[in-house]
Amino acid sequence: MFPIQHNPTTDETSLTSHLQVQVAYESPLPVGVTDHSTDQESYRPGETIQTSTTVRNVSDAVETLAATLSIEDELGAIKGSLSSPPFVVPAGGSYELTLAWVGPLAAGSYQATVTLWRSDDLVGGYSAGFQVVDGRIVALVAPEGLSPGEEAQFQLTFANYRPSQGAANVELSIHDNEGL
Predict the structure, then answer these.
(1) pLDDT tens-digit profile of 45-56?
(2) pTM (2 decimals)?
(3) b/e 118-150 (16+ beta carbons within 10 angstroms → b)
């Protein structure tokens, strides 16, 4: 019904004082991932990869799901995976899913991908990137300020996460506020 109706036979126009509309939306996928992350941006080799995923159910029915966590390298090769036991997401609610994966990973870039399943049907998923590093700079001690031409001592501490010794080369560039 339109708020204004005109009858051409009687040449009368009626104005409806109010119009009430009720919309019912049915989502083809009533559940989805609203947040997925790892507990750290970078890990040491062999460190546990902890993930946290928020699963949201927008339907008025309880959903029973399972999840798969896959660890993929930068070329998309799966380095490992694990499956969760079934879990219940309440109608109109959410569920916090935590999964942890432990396995050998070389230094590099990876994706932690969670995939949601209802029986054998794929219903959602999400990825979060992370790094595995062999070592990192953990401290840098430098003087507060220097005059041009003045010599100074700098101390750099590097943590080696590899099982064997290694050598590292460090280059230090000093710039002013304008990048010169």
Answers:
(1) 989 999 999 999
(2) 0.70
(3) beeeebbbbebebebeeeeeeeeeeeeeeeeee
